[in-house]
Design a protein that fits this description.
Layout lengths: L6 E2 L11 H6 L4 H18 L3 E4 L3 E4 L2 E4 L5 E5 L2 E5 L4 E4 L8 H7 L3 E2 L3 E4 L7 H15 L1
Parallel strand pairs: 1-5
Antiparallel strand pairs: 2-3, 3-6, 4-5, 6-7, 7-9, 8-9
Helix pairs in contact: 2-4, 3-4
């Protein structure tokens, strides 16, 4: 039986050549803008990757082709990243956030999705715990 070839899925969210600094500097809320620069520095140092703006909304670090076990489809996606949304920050950790259950208890005020962590502002969380969560997430991907 011939091996089934996986299909690369075409997704709307793609890397751009737009300036990450310009994107952040356009954020009207000063607290969110300052927190964005802190997250930019934190994720840059941990990943060793240059930040890339993905589809005008997500700041991503690194790139990897992920394959769905359920559908056999592949998608190119960032290793880690964040999006400064109006309501909160979405941190894209690309692994099951529940894998960080113990650290999340120490993190501070947050919400979770499957591969995302939602934080309103950085003063609400312990930055050292957040750094550990980002490091652990990245280590599981590389």
């Amino acid at each position: 039986m011939a091996e089934k070839k996986s299909k690369l899925a075409e997704i709307k969210t793609k890397p751009t050549a737009l300036s990450v600094d310009e994107f952040i500097n356009k954020i009207a809320d000063e607290q969110k803008r300052n927190d964005s620069f802190v997250l930019l520095d934190l994720m840059s140092k941990i990943s060793g990757e240059q930040p890339v703006l993905w589809s005008n909304a997500i700041i991503g670090f690194g790139n990897k082709r992920f394959k769905s076990a359920a559908t056999d489809r592949e998608v190119d996606w960032l290793l880690i990243g964040f999006a400064p949304r109006k309501a909160n920050f979405s941190l894209y950790l690309t692994v099951n956030v529940k894998d960080h259950a113990e650290a999340l208890q120490k993190l501070g005020k947050h919400k979770t999705g499957v591969g995302c962590l939602y934080i309103n502002k950085l003063v609400d969380v312990d930055l050292d715990v957040l750094k550990d969560i980002v490091k652990t997430s990245l280590a599981k991907l590389v």
